[in-house]
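Hey, I was hoping to borrow your eyes for a little while. I've been staring at a protein lately and its backbone has me curious. You're getting the sequence in one-letter code plus the fold written as tokens. Would you mind checking whether the tokens look sensible for this chain? Here's the protein in full, and shout if anything looks odd to you:
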Amino acid sequence: MFATAKDGTKLYYETAGETGTPILFIHEFGGNYDAWEPQLAYFARYHRCITYAARGYAPSDIPADPAQYSQALAVSDAIAVLDAAGIDKAHIVGLSMGGFATVHFGLDYPERALSLVIAGAGYGCEKATEEYFRGVSLQVAEKFAADPVLFAETYGRGASRVQFEDKDPRGHADFIKRLARHSAIGAPNTMRGVQAARPSFWDLEDRLKACDLPALIMVGDEDDHCLQPGIYLKSMMPASGLSVFPKTGHTLNLEEPGKFNAEVAEFLAKVEAGAWGRRNPRANPAQVMRTE
């Protein structure tokens, strides 16, 4: 099935499950719609699940113009998929690049979200490394443009991916195969237009503080560039919780699918029961200690 974005780009999506509240899954740069298969197989028992290929990822359209890729378009594409599926509101689950899209979805379209799951998001956010990250992103774009198959071997075995390879060599090999199928046009344009140009979480402080949506922030403790951004999101978003996976890297949903599914399932159950609210003001460490 295909949705149509506001600029006419066709977006491929699949659904699983017939009943229950909807969940929209938004993939990372290194994945695609099918990287959520362990989650669809589990959550489709209780929810209507939707996964889609971002623009630049086959079988969605792959615009040749870099101007047709941005963080804002990534969010409006998610809305287009929900519209095409006839869904008014959904739980939004995103990993890495998809986690950034999930944050912006909650900020830009809070009326369309039931909750937010923000996993492995934050690389390049810290102000001290922001410009370095932009430069690396542009280099990655050039490498993918030259030879996606060859560069997949390098990109897929970085410092925050080796944990996945150590735990699950077969699963990691499948990840590399998917990565090698990235488009030599779409992947570079995504890096240039989305990854390298997106705003830091630190630039969104006031908007994050005003976001009341229930949010679960998830990060691996060996995903070093996402740890501090995860803590920052937790400190800014008033109805958020933070889960840190031990001995885990970046690809949370594939590296630790059982733990990922269990924690997301518990979060969704609490949200739907009305048991996941804002942080109790009494838990604020900056409050004046009561002496009476």
In short: DSSP finds twelve helices and eight strands in the chain.
